[in-house]
Amino acid sequence: MTRNPDLDSHDSSDKSYSRNSQKILNKFNVSVGYEVKIVTKKAEFFGIILPRYETFSDKYIVLKLKSGYNIGIEIENIIEIISKNVDQLSKNL
User: Fold this and answer.
1) Which tens digit of pLDDT belongs to each residue from 35-71?
2) Which domains are seen in the chain, by residue range?
Protein backbone atom coordinates (compact mmCIF):
# COMPACT_ATOMS: atom_id res chain seq x y z
CA MET A 1 0.00 0.00 0.00
CA THR A 2 1.21 3.50 -0.73
CA ARG A 3 2.46 5.29 2.38
CA ASN A 4 4.22 8.56 2.97
CA PRO A 5 7.26 7.59 5.13
CA ASP A 6 7.33 11.03 6.80
CA LEU A 7 3.82 10.43 8.16
CA ASP A 8 4.01 6.68 8.76
CA SER A 9 2.62 5.68 12.15
CA HIS A 10 4.39 2.26 12.09
CA ASP A 11 1.30 0.47 13.46
CA SER A 12 -2.32 -0.04 12.49
CA SER A 13 -3.68 2.05 15.36
CA ASP A 14 -2.71 5.70 14.99
CA LYS A 15 -2.62 7.48 18.30
CA SER A 16 -3.87 10.76 16.82
CA TYR A 17 -7.22 9.16 15.98
CA SER A 18 -9.45 7.60 18.60
CA ARG A 19 -12.75 5.79 18.98
CA ASN A 20 -15.05 6.61 16.05
CA SER A 21 -12.48 7.88 13.58
CA GLN A 22 -10.03 5.05 14.33
CA LYS A 23 -12.84 2.51 13.80
CA ILE A 24 -13.47 3.77 10.27
CA LEU A 25 -9.74 3.75 9.44
CA ASN A 26 -9.53 0.17 10.71
CA LYS A 27 -12.68 -0.82 8.80
CA PHE A 28 -11.06 0.17 5.51
CA ASN A 29 -7.57 -1.02 6.55
CA VAL A 30 -5.87 2.38 6.14
CA SER A 31 -3.81 4.59 8.44
CA VAL A 32 -2.01 7.92 8.65
CA GLY A 33 0.27 8.37 5.64
CA TYR A 34 -1.82 6.30 3.23
CA GLU A 35 -2.66 7.84 -0.13
CA VAL A 36 -6.38 7.26 -0.57
CA LYS A 37 -9.63 8.03 -2.31
CA ILE A 38 -12.40 8.82 0.16
CA VAL A 39 -15.92 8.41 -1.21
CA THR A 40 -18.59 10.39 0.66
CA LYS A 41 -22.31 10.90 0.18
CA LYS A 42 -21.60 14.07 -1.83
CA ALA A 43 -18.15 13.80 -3.44
CA GLU A 44 -14.86 11.92 -3.82
CA PHE A 45 -11.60 13.23 -2.36
CA PHE A 46 -8.03 12.15 -3.17
CA GLY A 47 -5.13 12.76 -0.81
CA ILE A 48 -2.98 11.57 2.08
CA ILE A 49 -4.47 10.79 5.49
CA LEU A 50 -2.91 13.13 8.04
CA PRO A 51 -2.74 12.86 11.82
CA ARG A 52 -5.71 14.49 13.55
CA TYR A 53 -5.13 17.81 15.27
CA GLU A 54 -5.48 17.52 19.04
CA THR A 55 -8.24 20.13 19.04
CA PHE A 56 -10.05 18.58 16.07
CA SER A 57 -13.20 16.56 16.72
CA ASP A 58 -12.96 12.77 16.69
CA LYS A 59 -15.76 12.77 14.10
CA TYR A 60 -13.44 13.76 11.23
CA ILE A 61 -10.63 12.28 9.13
CA VAL A 62 -8.00 14.85 8.04
CA LEU A 63 -6.90 14.64 4.40
CA LYS A 64 -4.07 16.52 2.62
CA LEU A 65 -5.27 17.30 -0.91
CA LYS A 66 -2.95 17.59 -3.93
CA SER A 67 -3.65 21.35 -3.90
CA GLY A 68 -1.91 21.50 -0.52
CA TYR A 69 -5.07 22.21 1.43
CA ASN A 70 -6.01 20.09 4.44
CA ILE A 71 -9.67 19.19 4.89
CA GLY A 72 -11.67 17.39 7.53
CA ILE A 73 -14.14 14.81 6.27
CA GLU A 74 -16.96 13.94 8.64
CA ILE A 75 -16.89 10.18 9.24
CA GLU A 76 -20.67 9.80 9.15
CA ASN A 77 -20.56 10.88 5.48
CA ILE A 78 -17.83 8.40 4.47
CA ILE A 79 -19.06 5.53 2.31
CA GLU A 80 -15.69 4.03 1.40
CA ILE A 81 -11.94 4.62 1.73
CA ILE A 82 -9.78 3.05 -0.96
CA SER A 83 -6.00 2.89 -0.80
CA LYS A 84 -4.63 4.25 -4.09
CA ASN A 85 -2.21 1.33 -4.42
CA VAL A 86 -4.95 -1.28 -3.89
CA ASP A 87 -7.18 0.47 -6.45
CA GLN A 88 -4.38 0.43 -9.07
CA LEU A 89 -3.64 -3.25 -8.46
CA SER A 90 -7.27 -4.26 -9.00
CA LYS A 91 -7.35 -2.44 -12.35
CA ASN A 92 -4.32 -4.42 -13.55
CA LEU A 93 -5.90 -7.84 -12.81
Assistant:
1) 999 999 999 999 999 998 776 678 999 999 999 999 9
2) 19-92 (2.30.30.520)
> Which DSSP string corresponds to 1-54?
--B-TTT--SSSS-TTS-HHHHHHHHHTT--TTBEEEEEESS-EEEEEEEPPPT
CA atoms within 13 A on the CB side of 87: 15
Q: Measuring CA to CA, which residue among 81, 92, 63, 73 is closest to residue 4?
A: 63
The model carries a pTM of 0.74
3 state DSSP class of 58: coil
| DSSP structure class, residue 57 | -
